[in-house]
Design a protein that fits this description.
Length: 142
Amino acid sequence: MTKPISVPRPLVRVNQWVIFLSVVITWITGQYWILAIPLIANVLGIFTGFNPIMRFAKIFLTKDINSYIPEEIGQQKFNSTIASICLAGGIIGFAFNWPVVAYSFTVMVAVASFVAILGFCVGCFMLFQFKQYQYRRSLKNS
């Protein structure tokens, strides 16, 4: 069995919604452990390829998995890494009562996930810019 090279967009959207809603619920309730739900799911996805949020959402797909718009796995792992860093930073900030740290990280991940839901991927833009920088640097060095 070959590893998939893409993820159906609806599964990515569900993951983005879970990140966004977990942050909003954390802000409303003050229960910062809620951030651990998308954090654990995304870290598992990064290291094992198994994101329980996406796996659960997959049972609700109504069409053939290949008929959905694909999202590249490498890009999703990059985005999940950024989200995981922000979620972990938020948890640490709340746990140590460092509100500036907690809200800085959670605002970043909430805005990025919500903007991604609307159609613009901040992580994709960052990775593209980094790859452009590497390319320009390689031209300069050759």
